[in-house]
Design goal:
138 residues, 16% helix, 25% strand
């Protein structure tokens, strides 16, 4: 039997809003790949890739997709002698809300899905085709 529904809802509510302050040793990181067994490779704002662990309260409750963002604590794993570099504290679910916070890293600026408009190539979308008067005279 799965975990009680109220625990699932509490975890979902917990991750829906960003914290007001991020303490030292905590970073927002981009998930680059799932390494298996609740381990994820994440990229820190400095460009360093570390391996982080997903705590048991998130397992089978919150899914993390590649390219998503998580709040990582690296302080707890500084003194340990293993391959883990941190632990996931929170999963960014409402990315739009998190981006408004002052601690959101500048390195993770949202890129536009449309290429920048250039003055050289004028778009013809929504315009009528040119009228060739030379064809009408023949």
């Amino acid at each position: 039997m799965g975990p009680p529904r109220r625990n699932l809802q509490a975890t979902a509510r917990e991750t829906s809003s960003p914290p007001s302050v991020v303490s030292e040793g905590q970073y927002i990181a981009r998930v680059t790949r799932a390494a298996g067994n609740n381990l994820y490779a994440v990229e820190l704002p400095a460009g360093i890739e570390i391996l982080v662990e997903l705590p048991s309260r998130f397992r089978s409750t919150i899914w993390i997709k590649r390219g998503g963002y998580v709040l990582v604590d690296t302080k707890a794993f500084d003194d340990r002698e293993n391959k883990l570099g941190g632990e996931v504290l929170n999963v960014v679910r409402d990315e739009k809300e998190w981006r408004k916070e002052a601690y959101w890293p500048k390195e993770f600026v949202k890129k536009s899905s449309y290429p920048e408009d250039s003055d050289e190539d004028e778009s013809t979308v929504g315009k009528m085709p040119p009228n060739d008067e030379s064809d009408a005279d023949s």
